[in-house]
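testing teh design pipeline on a random one, pls ignore if ur not involved
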C-alpha cells in the first residue's frame, strides 16, 4: 500500500462504530465523542469484525458490497478519507485474518442470512502485490470456517472447518496464482480434528502457533515448514472448575495470554439466563491456565486494555461490564476486578427466548494501549465509555442510527500494538 506517516503518538483514541443494519460507519474521538468522519451505505460484516493492521490501519468487510475496506482512522487529520482502499472479496464474510506483517489477508464465507451454508469461497488478498493481483477467490468446502494466516518467508493460510473438523493448509502464494472463475483450491495438507464443533481461532505470531476452540478444549498446532503438527489440546477445566466450553478465543498481546469465556449450563437457549460463565485464560509462555467466575447469563466477546480484560454480561436482573485485572508480569494471575452496571436495553433478550434472535445485543471494544472501554447499547444508538483503570464511567456517546443488534466497535490508540493479534475481532 502507498506509504503514509504513522498516526501522531499524541493523537486521542478513536472509536470506529459500525451500524451494520443501518449501513453507517462513524469515526469518533474519545472520550468526548466528536465525529471526525462518517461513511454511509456500508454494511460491515459483524461476525468477521475488525482486523487491526500495522501503521494504524483497520480492515473490515462490507457484506453487501462484497468489498474488503482498509480504514484509516487517523487519515482525516491529514486530509485523507476514512476508507483508504476497497478490494472485492467473496461474501457473506465469516472470518477475516492477516499475517503478522498485515500484507496478506484471507476472508472466509459463512451462512450470512441463510439457513444452510451455500458458498465455500475463500478470498486471498495481497495488499502489496507487485503484479497488481490484489485479491483472488477460490472454492473449498462449504461451512462456517475460521481462518488464520501464518507469516514467514512462505505465508500459509490455515482454514479451520467443523462438521467434520479439520485444518486445511494452503500456501498463500499459490492461492494468489489461482486461475479466474473460482477454481477449487487443493490444500497442501489436511489435518483431521477430533471435534466437529470448532468455534473460535487465535494465532500467536511470536511462536507461529495457531489455536482453535472446540468442545473438548483448545486445539494447538505449530508450524513446521509447510506443515502443521498438532500438540496436546489445552483443557477447559482449570483450578477445580470444570464443565462447559469456550465459543470465542482471543490473543492478548500485552500479557501474551489466550482468553475465552467458558459457557456451561442448560442446553436449551431459552434458559440462557441460567448459563454459567467463566473467564478462561492461558499464559502462552508459562503454560499456566485458570478460570474465574463471571456470573450467569450471556457473556461472549471480550476486549483487551493495557491493564484489564473487559467482558459484558447480559442478564434479566441487570447488565454489567466486568473488568478483570491482568498484570503484565509473566506468571501473574488475573483477578476479579470491578463490576459496573450498564443501562438496560429496551429490546434486550428475555427468558424463554434465544439471546440472539430478534433481540438487542452489546458490542465491547478497547485498545491494548490504553484504559478506555466502549460498550454499545443496542437499539438506543448509544455507546458508554468507561475508564478501566479508574473503574468509572467517562461519557455516553450517541450516533444517529439505533445500533440494532448492538453494532460493532473498534477502539484504536496510536502505537498500541493491537496488530499483534492478527485475527479479526
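output:
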Amino acid at each position: 500500500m502507498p506509504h503514509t506517516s504513522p498516526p501522531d503518538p499524541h493523537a486521542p483514541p478513536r472509536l470506529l462504530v459500525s451500524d451494520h443494519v443501518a449501513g453507517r460507519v462513524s469515526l469518533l474521538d474519545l472520550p468526548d465523542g466528536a465525529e471526525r468522519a462518517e461513511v454511509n451505505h456500508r454494511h460491515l460484516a459483524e461476525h468477521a469484525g475488525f482486523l487491526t493492521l500495522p501503521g494504524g490501519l483497520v480492515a473490515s468487510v462490507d457484506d453487501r458490497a462484497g468489498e474488503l475496506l482498509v480504514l484509516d482512522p487517523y487519515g482525516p487529520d491529514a486530509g485523507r478519507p476514512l476508507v483508504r482502499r476497497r478490494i472485492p472479496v467473496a461474501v457473506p464474510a465469516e472470518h477475516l485474518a492477516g499475517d503478522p506483517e498485515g500484507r496478506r489477508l484471507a476472508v472466509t464465507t459463512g451462512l450470512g442470512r441463510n439457513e444452510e451454508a451455500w458458498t465455500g469461497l475463500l478470498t486471498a488478498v495481497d495488499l502489496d502485490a507487485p503484479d497488481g493481483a490484489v485479491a483472488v477467490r477460490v472454492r473449498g468446502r462449504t461451512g462456517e470456517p475460521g481462518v488464520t494466516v501464518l507469516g514467514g518467508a512462505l505465508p500459509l493460510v490455515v482454514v479451520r472447518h467443523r462438521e467434520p473438523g479439520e485444518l486445511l493448509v494452503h500456501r498463500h502464494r499459490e492461492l494468489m496464482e489461482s486461475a479466474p472463475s473460482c477454481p477449487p483450491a487443493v490444500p497442501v495438507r489436511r489435518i483431521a480434528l477430533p471435534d466437529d464443533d470448532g468455534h473460535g481461532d487465535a494465532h500467536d505470531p511470536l511462536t507461529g502457533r495457531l489455536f482453535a476452540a472446540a468442545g473438548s478444549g483448545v486445539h494447538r498446532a505449530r508450524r513446521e515448514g509447510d506443515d502443521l503438527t498438532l500438540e496436546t489440546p489445552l483443557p477447559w477445566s482449570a483450578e477445580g472448575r470444570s464443565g462447559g466450553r469456550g465459543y470465542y478465543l482471543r490473543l492478548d498481546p500485552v500479557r501474551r495470554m489466550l482468553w475465552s469465556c467458558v459457557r456451561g449450563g442448560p442446553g436449551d437457549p431459552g434458559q440462557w439466563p441460567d448459563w454459567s460463565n467463566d473467564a478462561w485464560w492461558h499464559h502462552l509462555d508459562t503454560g499456566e491456565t485458570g478460570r474465574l467466575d463471571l456470573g450467569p447469563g450471556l457473556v461472549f466477546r471480550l476486549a483487551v486494555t493495557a491493564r484489564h480484560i473487559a467482558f459484558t454480561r447480559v442478564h434479566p436482573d441487570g447488565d454489567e461490564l466486568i473488568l478483570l485485572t491482568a498484570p503484565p508480569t509473566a506468571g501473574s494471575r488475573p483477578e476479579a476486578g470491578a463490576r459496573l452496571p450498564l443501562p438496560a436495553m429496551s429490546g434486550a433478550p428475555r427468558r424463554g427466548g434465544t439471546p440472539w434472535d430478534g433481540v438487542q445485543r452489546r458490542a465491547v471494544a478497547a485498545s491494548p494501549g490504553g484504559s478506555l472501554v466502549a460498550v454499545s447499547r443496542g437499539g438506543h444508538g448509544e455507546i458508554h465509555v468507561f475508564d478501566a483503570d479508574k473503574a468509572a464511567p467517562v461519557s455516553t456517546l450517541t450516533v444517529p442510527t439505533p445500533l440494532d443488534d448492538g453494532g460493532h466497535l473498534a477502539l484504536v490508540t496510536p502505537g498500541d500494538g493491537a496488530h499483534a493479534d492478527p485475527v479479526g475481532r
